[in-house]
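Q: What would this chain look like folded?
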Amino acid sequence: MQTPRGLRCNLGILALLTAVLILRTDAQARGVLRDAAIRAALAAISGGKLPLSDDRLVELIQEYVRRVVAAQADGHPSDGIEAAASIAQEAVSQVTAAYAAAIFQSTTAPEAQRLFARFQDTVDRIVQFAKSGDFGIGGIDRPADRGNERRFDY
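A: My prediction, written as structure tokens:
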């Protein structure tokens, strides 16, 4: 028989996993990340079968963002930027769900810490890509370009 504290801890973990699964299912239902390779990589991570590095996953997400942005930004770059932000946000959400499942499956504290560090690095790389504004379309005021224009005193 479990103690009330142990039961409460198990219920908390169950609630967190349920929330993660609901978010993941909702994201898949909306089809934000429709790329099969990305979904396969995320499924492998959540199943605990991690590749040596997440470089390929980040590249796949970047390529997907560029494809979607190019398709939606035809004539209206701002539409492309909004799409990129939405996709990057959803990618971070799905990477979070996959890594949360992998971390909960880890058997040792050092393994969980290593997975958490990888998760942080992967999310940071996705966020930096989104912030860079380098989506492969012209006519966009990229964040790096802001503030570099000439200032005129009138």
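The chain has one domain: 7-137.
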